[in-house]
Amino acid sequence: MKHLFIVNPTAGGSDKTGVVREKVEAAFARRADSTDTYDIYVTRAPMDAPGKIREEATRNEHLRVYACGGDGTLNECVCGAAGLDNVAVAPFPTGTGNDFCRMFGPDKDLYRDLDALLDGGERPIDLIDCNGRYCSNICSVGIDARIGTTVHKYSKIPVIGGATGYVVSTVVNVFKGINRHMRVRMKNYFVDEELALVCACNGRYYGGGFNPSLTARPDDGLLDVFVVKKVDIITLARMIGKYAAGKYEECPGYITRIQTDEVTISFDEENVVNVDGEALYAKDVNIRLIPGAMKLVVPAGMHFFD
């Protein structure tokens, strides 16, 4: 088996290539009798990883890919591995957090344990196809997508930085207007009105800790879709904590949950779409679940899929 470590040198604000190399070399030194091989590839530009993964997949009978970075790095690896039967992907976080991994609860830190990953198995999971871009975790449109995809613009300002960037991004986007006119269609559901957001969950966490779905699974063939109706700033402030904690049932007049495998959304003009934390721009959005589209590495000792 070939192990390919994809390192994003900009993830987390600092280059972790040296740290990754040290961990990889130590792990394989402990496995001197193994016939497995490995390579460390440092990405050179956004969406550089998919091409490298597909190239290696043609050369190796069995390839495991480790996304060394954050959710953006994982998304690139997912895009490269989707539909390839001989490729499995593992997040290997090198920063402070990874929203995809949070879904696994007490087992999430096993994705930081390289030995557990190397000893782990593999399991098919579903992926989202959003206008041709693959996504393993969450897609959304609306106020949350606008906040999440512009936060980096403010976090890079020295006097702001870090988590304060979310606060600034929230304030700026709220004052630009919370709601947008959308036409949302799912099976037996259609709405044509102003909405705050629509969030389609294959995983459970996004935006650095928002957890709208407590039960979404990446292997059940379903999306948990949340439609949040038009709200004013006071209502948004009152209900955002409930939405973030998965307590949508406490907001029946504003939040509707639907389980489906496809949702289409259209706007009057182009809007930002959050795809695993990455930004796409579209006027018409198609979010479609593809069952078993990718193999996920399941670390040794993980019980989530039991």
Could you provide a short overview of the structure?
With about 300 residues, the chain is α+β, with helices and mostly antiparallel strands. The chain has helices at about 15-30, 50-60, 70-80, 100, 115-120, 145-155, 165-175, 235-245, and strands spanning about 1-5, 35-40, 65-70, 85-90, 120-130, 135, 140, 180-185, 190-200, 225-230, 255-260, 260-275, 280-300.
Task: Describe this structure as you would to a colleague.
By secondary structure, the protein is an alpha+beta fold. The chain has helices spanning 17-29, 49-59, 71-81, 99-102, 114-118, 143-155, 164-176, 233-244; strands at residues 2-7, 37-42, 63-68, 87-91, 121-130, 133-135, 138-142, 180-186, 189-201, 223-229, 255-260, 262-275, 278-298. Strands 1, 2, 3, 4, 5, 6, 7, 8, 9, 10, 11, 12 and 13 form a 13-stranded mixed β-sheet that branches. Helix 6 packs across helix 7 (164-176). The two termini are 25 Å apart. The mean pLDDT is 93.
Major pleated sheet: 13 strands, mixed
Could you say which overall geometry the principal axes of the C-alpha atoms support? elongated
C-alpha termini separation? 25 Å
Structural class computed from helices and strand pairing? alpha+beta
Order of helices and strands: EHEHEHEHHEEEHHEEEHEEE
Strand content: 35-45%
Total helices: the number is: 8
Secondary structure: helix percent? 25-40%
User: Low-confidence parts, pLDDT < 50 over ≥5 residues?
Assistant: none
Q: How many E strands?
A: 13
Radius of gyration, Cα only, in angstroms? 19 Å
Overall average pLDDT: 93
